[in-house]
Structures are given as structure tokens and as C-alpha cells.
């Protein structure tokens, strides 16, 4: 029984082993074997509807799903060209060549691979969403646990104004909420079934594309077969989303490394996040934060690689696009691993008292003079500046008062920050529910339920 899905026009289908290893993708796209099986099963059901495949063979494929998947999982990397040929090979072993060889009727790997990729993302994003929930919770808990602790805000790496440490943490959570919104929107755009696109021009076989999409859980079918088979902007968008998360985590690491250093001393990092020096006995190095910070460099590479992959390609599928999955899988695992670790970071840091420069109260005094003496702000600004220039200290306001006199809702006023904590929790929870709603229909159990319902 043949393993290749092609070969008729070739005088010799035996490829040099070095070239075969170079161009085959089974070693990395095999991770999508369950998704590809389910897509192949949906296609087989569509073929049975037009009497190409017997319904008994469909039942046999379903019955032996576990064995087929186990056989694919046990296969060596060099046994198959890709996951598609592996799935068809082992299904054919169960149902026979007459039925198995018809599985290729009306479809191409060009449509199959992008649909499989979309389905893989939508199924595996559930784990990612659960970890993102933990990230959000750990940030909010950190803000709550450190409420009331005052540190300086830095602008241009100089002390600027007193703020609550909780306010700083919430600033990062605000950025994380935007990342979650982008992630949610990416998933919506991935909720598209591309089956029926064929190699790029569609197919002359009257397949029920709507049925296949419904069985797999997709909300809609694609509108253009050329677009379906030759574009990967939705994957670039997803990796951009991951890159913004990594960028945020890098900024968080920057802040904590600086604020916890001996020169600043506004944050205490637990020993759980640090390692020592092989030579210097006194060292406690914030290695966990430094490695998190370094990951953003990799995401710049992933994003650049994915976007550049399409550059110079004409419309229609090209083998170049095979590399999109290698980039995707690495980026997906990297953001998952980094997110798990950042949760532990927020559980193992706390703000601590250290010297805040008196001059950070200058803005408060300048605003106070405007309100008390009814003078223009530029004049007040100059008066306070001259006072500091002469070495005088600001005694009219203290750090706690500085926080309390802030009037705007997004400010560092303790009352405002308490409201922000509650708002952040509610907003994040709402987005997580929206993401869960998108993903729930793609789970394997839901697919199995729909298949059984159709077969009955």
C-alpha cells in the first residue's frame, strides 16, 4: 500500500534521503494528528453523503479512531511525508484501498493544512486561556497584597512622582487586558473552515462544505479558495499577539530588575526566582526575570519569520508555507511556558520601603500653589523649581497626601486604585468568558458528540 499521496506523473518517486528529510514535515506537523484525523473523517462523511463512501466504512473509521491515532503516534519521523499522508495510510489499512484511496477525492493538502492548523490552534488555545487566567489573577492579587505601599514613578529613569506599587502592577495588567482582547479577536478570525477550496480553485465534487464546517465546530466557511490556500496573515496576527504579550512580560521584568537592585531597593524578589554566582558568594541574580526578558528577542524572530515567509510568493500555495507551522508551534509553546513562569513571579515579589526623593512632591506643590494663590501654572512651576534649586525641601505635602490629592479616576489615588482593581478583575473575567465561548465548540468531546449525532 502506497504511503505517498502523489506519484503518477513521476518516472521515479524514490527521493534521495537527504532531500526527503529536508522537505518532509511529518517530524513537526505530526503534532496535529488528532485534528487532521477529525478533518479527514468530516471529509469522509461528506463523501458518504454523495455515495462515494459507504456509511459502514464511516462507522469503521470512528470505531478504530483510537488505534489509527496510536499507529500515527508510534510512527517514525521519516516514515511519512506529512501528517496528512500518515492519517490516510492508517485509515486505508482499516477500511481497505477502495475506500481509503477515495479519501483524496475532492480535496487537496493545500486546503487541508490550513484548516488543520486553525483547528489545532482553536483546540489548544483552551490551555493557553487557562494559563492567561492565572497570569491575570496573579497580577491582581499582587496589586491587592501590596496595596498601600508607596514607591516612586520613574520617568527618564529618574524619580518623578510618588505612586502606589499596586498602581504600577495594574498598569501592566491594563496592557495584558489589551493583549487578551487581541487574542480573542485573533481566535474569531481563525474560526473559518477552508475545506472545499481544493488546491486553490475549488473542486468539481459536490461536497457539503457547510456540513463539514458544522461537524468540526467552525462558524463559517471561507469565501475565496485562493485566499484560503495561499494566505497566512491570520497566523502572523496570532504571533503578533504573542509578541505583544512577550513584550509586556519583558517590560515587567525590566521594572522588577531595576526596582529590586541595591541602588533602588523598592522591590524584594524571593530567592525562588534567583540563582547564585559560581564565583561570587554574595550574589543573588534575578535570572528568572532576565530569561523572561530575553524571550522577547525570540518573538521578534518568530514574527519576522512568519511575515517574511509570504513575501515574494505569488497567489496560490507554495511549499514555503510549510514552514509556518514550525514557527507557530515554537511560538505557541514559548508563550505558554513563559506565561506559566510569570505567574510565579507575581506570587514571589513584594514592594518594600526605600528612600523616595523629596523633590518628587514638586508637581503636587506647584498645583497646590495655583489653587491657593490663583497664579498661572508656569509661574508656580518656576517658583517651585527655584525653591528646589536653592536646596530647600518640600514640607507642605507628604507622600501619602500626594496620593490622596489626586482627583482623576485613572490616577494613583488609593480610592481610585481600589476601584481599578475591581474593574480590572471584572474586565478580564468578561474577556475570558468570551474566549471560552469561542473555544468550547472546538473541543474533541464536542466533535465526538456531533459526529455521533450525525451518524445516528
Please provide a written account of the structure.
The protein has 456 residues and is mostly helical. The protein folds into three domains: 17-105, Fumarase C, Chain B, domain 1 (Orthogonal Bundle); 111-141 and 164-353 and 420-447, Fumarase C, Chain A, domain 2 (Up-down Bundle), CATH 1.20.200.10; 358-405. The protein is built from 19 helices and six strands. The strands form three sheets. It has a two-stranded antiparallel ribbon with strand order 1-2. A two-stranded parallel sheet has the order 3-4. The chain has a two-stranded antiparallel ribbon with strand order 5-6. Strand 1 (150-155) and strand 2 form a beta hairpin. It is elongated and about 95 Å long. The mean pLDDT is 95.
Layout: helices, strands, pairs:
Blueprint: H1 17-23, H2 26-29, H3 33-49, H4 55-63, H5 65-74, H6 83-95, H7 97-100, H8 109-145, E1 150-155, E2 158-164, H9 165-190, E3 192-193, H10 209-216, E4 220-221, H11 225-230, H12 233-259, E5 267-269, H13 287-309, H14 323-347, E6 349-351, H15 362-373, H16 377-389, H17 399-404, H18 414-439, H19 444-455
Parallel strand pairs: 3-4
Antiparallel strand pairs: 1-2, 5-6
Helix pairs in contact: 3-4, 3-6, 3-10, 5-6, 8-9, 8-14, 8-18, 9-12, 9-18, 12-13, 12-14, 13-14, 15-16
Query: What is Rg?
Result: 29 Å
**What best-fitting shape do the alpha-carbon axes yield?**
elongated
Q: What's the story with the biggest beta sheet?
A: 2 strands, antiparallel
- Tell me the count of domains: 3
> Quick check: average pLDDT?
95
**What's the CATH architecture of the largest domain?**
Up-down Bundle
**Structural class category:** mainly alpha
CATH superfamily of the largest domain: Fumarase/aspartase (Central domain)
CATH topology of the largest domain: Fumarase C, Chain A, domain 2
CATH class of the largest domain: Mainly Alpha
Query: Strands of the largest sheet, in order across it?
Result: 1-2
Amino acid at each position: 500500500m502506497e504511503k505517498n499521496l502523489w506519484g503518477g506523473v513521476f518516472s521515479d518517486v524514490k527521493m534521495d534521503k537527504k532531500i526527503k528529510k529536508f522537505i518532509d514535515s511529518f517530524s513537526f506537523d505530526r503534532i496535529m494528528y488528532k485534528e487532521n484525523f477529525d478533518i479527514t473523517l468530516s471529509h469522509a462523511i461528506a463523501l458518504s453523503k454523495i455515495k462515494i463512501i459507504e456509511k459502514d466504512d464511516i462507522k469503521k473509521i470512528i470505531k478504530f479512531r483510537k488505534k489509527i491515532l496510536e499507529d500515527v503516534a508510534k510512527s517514525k519521523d521519516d516514515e511519512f511525508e506529512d501528517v496528512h499522508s500518515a492519517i490516510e495510510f492508517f485509515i486505508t489499512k482499516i477500511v481497505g484501498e477502495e475506500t481509503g484511496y477515495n479519501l483524496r477525492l475532492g480535496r487537496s493538502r493545500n486546503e487541508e493544512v490550513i484548516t488543520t492548523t486553525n483547528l489545532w490552534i482553536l483546540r489548544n488555545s483552551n490551555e493557553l486561556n487557562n494559563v492567561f487566567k492565572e497570569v491575570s489573577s496573579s497580577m491582581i492579587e499582587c496589586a491587592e497584597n501590596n496595596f498601600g505601599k508607596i514607591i516612586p514613578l520613574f520617568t527618564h529613569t529618574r524619580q518623578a512622582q510618588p505612586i502606589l506599587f499596586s498602581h504600577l502592577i495594574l498598569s501592566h495588567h491594563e496592557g495584558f487586558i489589551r493583549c487578551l482582547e487581541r487574542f480573542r479577536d485573533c481566535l474569531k478570525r481563525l474560526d473559518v473552515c477552508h475545506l472545499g477550496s481544493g488546491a486553490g480553485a475549488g473542486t468539481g465534487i459536490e461536497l457539503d462544505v457547510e456540513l463539514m464546517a458544522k461537524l468540526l465546530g467552525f462558524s463559517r466557511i471561507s469565501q475565496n479558495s485562493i485566499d484560503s490556500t495561499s494566505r497566512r496573515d491570520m497566523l502572523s496576527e496570532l504571533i503578533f499577539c504573542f509578541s505583544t504579550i512577550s513584550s509586556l512580560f519583558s517590560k515587567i521584568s525590566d521594572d522588577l530588575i531595576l526596582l529590586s537592585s541595591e541602588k533602588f531597593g523598592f522591590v524584594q524578589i524571593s530567592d525562588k526566582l534567583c540563582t547564585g554566582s559560581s564565583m561570587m558568594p554574595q550574589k543573588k541574580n534575578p535570572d528568572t526575570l532576565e530569561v523572561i526578558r530575553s524571550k522577547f528577542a525570540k518573538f521578534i524572530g518568530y514574527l519576522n519569520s512568519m511575515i517574511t515567509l509570504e513575501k515574494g510568493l505569488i497567489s496560490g500555495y507554495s511549499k514555503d508555507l510549510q514552514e509556518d507551522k514550525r514557527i507557530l508551534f515554537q511560538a505557541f509553546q514559548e508563550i505558554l511556558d513563559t506565561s506559566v513562569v510569570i505567574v510565579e513571579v507575581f506570587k514571589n515579589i513584594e514592594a518594600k520601603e526605600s528612600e523616595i526623593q523629596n523633590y518628587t512632591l514638586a508637581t503636587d506643590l506647584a498645583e497646590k500653589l495655583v489653587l491657593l494663590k490663583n497664579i498661572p501654572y508656569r509661574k508656580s512651576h518656576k517658583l517651585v523649581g527655584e525653591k528646589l534649586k536653592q536646596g530647600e525641601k518640600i514640607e507642605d505635602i507628604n507622600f501619602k497626601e500626594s496620593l490622596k490629592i489626586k482627583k482623576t479616576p485613572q490616577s494613583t489615588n488609593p480610592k481610585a486604585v481600589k476601584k481599578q482593581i475591581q474593574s480590572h478583575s471584572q474586565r478580564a473575567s468578561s474577556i475570558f468568558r468570551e474566549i471560552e465561548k469561542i473555544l468550547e465548540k472546538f473541543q474533541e468531546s464536542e466533535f465526538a458528540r456531533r459526529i455521533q449525532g450525525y451518524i445516528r
